[in-house]
């Protein structure tokens, strides 16, 4: 009999899995799987469970927010043989599920996990010992994602991020940096940067180009230089959200890997969770490293 490991975060997204748990387990059983269940209790728990038991099963399914998905994949990356992965989104944003077109319905997502087809996706390796699924970021507003309390995320959703973000507008900090990759080298002061493999960031689809391929071995990179005047900042925001003419403060490009050096330690966020403080960062795209289950696309 095929084996499945189901890892879920009971607190994600207003604890909505509570009302769907029996339906999900029933779907797994009817698909012919012998089932093991792990209920996460703390940060890092999903990663430990995936690493400890992932090589004993045919399929790992996780349910939670982007942080739970990150932890599960980080655990699987420690294995010599990586099983296929199913994902049942249950968080407040679920950026990567949106990019993969995984249903917001937990029951439909569970069905796709066991009856769908595997799709290979790229994974980001951060400084050789951490991983991210869809975004690594630093600078303005990035602390919002991991400082916003879970209860606020549950109640307010995207509004929580906006409310917390407005608080940090007055204290935008600049970082003296050097960014190196095969395509270019940049130097100067920057207030924000993100390295992504997604079509949606923080629930907003306009921040990244929509011709993103999740399996092409390349990241989409966005870097914003420090504005000199309030008008410069306004122009940056207009470009980011309203798609006005590009300006000298915004850099967008694609790359397979990059190295970032800074004059001072910088806080990083990986998939919405705190990723550590670093002065030197090396990021590498691991092409098609994880196979994630999703609904079989309809034939034209």
From TrEMBL:
A Pfam family that this protein carries is DAGK_cat
Which Gene Ontology terms of cellular component type are present? Answer: plasma membrane
Q: Give the matching InterPro entries.
A: ATP-NAD_kinase_N, Diacylglycerol/lipid_kinase, Diacylglycerol_kinase_cat_dom, Lipid_Phosphate_FormReg, NAD/diacylglycerol_kinase_sf
Q: Which PROSITE patterns match?
A: DAGK
Tagged with keyword Lipid metabolism? yes
DAGKc domain location:
1-130
Which superkingdom heads the taxonomic lineage of this protein's source? Bacteria
Q: Which Gene3D superfamilies match?
A: 2.60.200.40, Probable inorganic polyphosphate/atp-NAD kinase, domain 1
Decide whether keyword Transferase is in the record.
yes
Give a GO biological-process term: phospholipid biosynthetic process
The cofactor named in the record is:
Mg(2+)
Which GO terms label this protein's molecular function in UniProt?
A: ATP binding; ATP-dependent diacylglycerol kinase activity; metal ion binding
Instruction: Please provide the record's keywords in A-Z order.
Output: Kinase, Lipid biosynthesis, Lipid metabolism, Magnesium, Metal-binding, Phospholipid biosynthesis, Phospholipid metabolism, Transferase
Family affiliation: Belongs to the diacylglycerol/lipid kinase family.
The protein here is known as: Diacylglycerol kinase
Organism encoding this protein: Lacrimispora celerecrescens
């Amino acid at each position: 009999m095929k084996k499945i490991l189901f890892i879920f975060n009971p607190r994600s997204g207003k604890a909505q899995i509570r009302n769907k748990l029996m339906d999900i387990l029933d779907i797994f059983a009817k698909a012919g799987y012998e089932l093991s269940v792990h209920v996460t209790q703390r940060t890092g728990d999903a990663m430990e469970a995936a690493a400890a038991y992932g090589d004993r099963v045919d399929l790992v399914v996780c349910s939670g927010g982007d942080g739970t998905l990150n932890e599960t994949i980080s655990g699987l990356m420690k294995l010599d043989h990586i099983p296929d992965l199913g994902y049942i989104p249950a968080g407040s944003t679920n950026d990567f599920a949106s990019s993969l077109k995984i249903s917001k319905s937990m029951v439909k997502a569970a069905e796709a996990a066991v009856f769908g087809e595997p799709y290979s996706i790229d994974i980001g390796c951060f400084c050789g010992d951490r991983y991210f699924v869809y975004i690594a970021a630093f600078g303005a507003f990035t602390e919002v994602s991991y400082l916003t309390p879970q209860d606020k995320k549950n109640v307010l959703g995207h509004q929580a991020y906006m409310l917390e973000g407005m608080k940090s507008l007055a204290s935008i900090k600049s970082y003296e940096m050097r960014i190196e990759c095969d395509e270019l080298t940049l130097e100067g002061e920057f207030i924000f940067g993100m390295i992504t493999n997604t079509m949606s960031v923080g629930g907003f689809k306009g921040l990244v180009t929509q011709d993103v391929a999740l399996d092409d071995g390349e990241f989409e990179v966005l870097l914003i230089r420090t504005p000199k005047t309030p008008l410069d900042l306004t122009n940056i925001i207009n470009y980011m959200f309203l798609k006005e003419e590009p300006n000298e403060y915004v850099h967008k490009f694609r790359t397979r890997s990059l190295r970032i050096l800074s004059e001072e330690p910088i806080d990083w966020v990986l998939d919405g969770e705190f990723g550590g403080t670093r002065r030197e960062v090396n990021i590498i795209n691991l092409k098609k490293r994880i196979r994630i289950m999703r609904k079989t696309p309809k034939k034209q």
